[in-house]
Amino acid sequence: MRASGPESGCESRDEIEAEAARLLARLNSAHGTETEIEVCRWIAADARHAVAFARAEAAWEAAERLKSAAAEVNLPPLEAIVSEEQQRRLSRNIMVAAAIAVMLFIIAAIVTIRTFSGVDHYETRIGQISDIALNDGSTLHLNSDSAAEVRFTDRGRKVRILKGEASFDVSHDRSRPFDVEVRSAVIRAVGTAFNVRLRPAVVELTVTQGTVTAYTGNTPGQQISAGSGAVIQPRSVSLTHLHPRLIDQRTAWREHMVELDGETIEQAANEFNRYRVAPILIGDTRVSSLRVGGRFRITDSKAFLSALRSSLPIRVVDGQDGSVMLLYQDEEDIAADGANK
């Protein structure tokens, strides 16, 4: 298979879609275990493979429906419909008619795929956290400003994270693996719980229950068990053992909380900005490296700002648009504030 070779990361979209169609045809003509394993490995090798295979499945189903509909139409012989002269005229235009028919078929297939592909889209606004019950008994938790697509078939369960952060409580079903596609990686589970966060350059995985397998690029799948995590890049999966306190911190959003444990003010502000339409801004580089701890509700950034003012040399300036500017408070500023009281 092309997916096993060293150049699979350079596959073009046309090559991937052609391979997806070939494997689907083979799967539908031969239901052996070896064929199913080969298809699963190819899908797991690259997130683009999984998307292409899902599209091929939808197109196959659409074609079967169109073929069944066509089989029900019975027409009399051509000679009984048109004269010999008309047949000659028809033959001169047969290529044009065929081209039009092909185009109509393609348009119908595209419409059918988009309408009947069975993809459910879920999205949250800034500041919104949503718990979604899936039809297999699993639960998808979406953090603020996040989006995901869900598609379940008889062969598998697939979720694609488009942005943000998501947590999963996966219902056990060994016959239908639960695949989470995120950027160039696929995270596979059977019955487990884990958290996935898209950061600017990497994907952060945290496993809280059971075991998952992470695939990316052409690397072998890496197993990550409860109490561990991974940093996933386009061609590598780096395993990390996580302290229980860090796991609680990463999953605190499930309880609508932000938990800080010695993070810099810049890191803390970025966490709160995930839940704010108007951001917290840092207007002095001396503020950035100061550190803070505490547990705050995501909807109560005022408590966080109040804690900063009371424990650190920070001045908070409110903007007219609801934003907040953090400035370093010098001794002269403190003295001036005292004189004004």
Task: Compute the number of helices.
Answer: 10
Query: Which whole number gives the mean pLDDT?
Result: 82
Major beta sheet summary: 7 strands, mixed
Q: Would you state the CATH class of the largest domain? A: Mainly Beta
Verbal overview:
The protein is α+β, with helices and mostly antiparallel strands and 341 residues long. The protein has helices at residues 13-29, 33-45, 47-71, 84-92, 94-116, 244-250, 265-273, 285-288, 301-311, 331-340, and strands at 120-123, 130-133, 139-142, 147-152, 157-163, 165-169, 178-182, 185-189, 193-198, 203-209, 211-216, 222-225, 228-233, 236-241, 257-264, 280-282, 291-297, 314-318, 324-328. It has 3 domains: 2-116, no CATH class; 120-248, Sandwich (Jelly Rolls); 256-340, 3-Layer(bab) Sandwich (Phage tail protein beta-alpha-beta fold), CATH 3.55.50.30. It is built from 10 helices and 19 strands. It has a 7-stranded mixed sheet, with no helix packed on it. Strand 4 and strand 5 (157-163) form a beta hairpin. It is elongated and about 95 Å long. The termini are far apart.
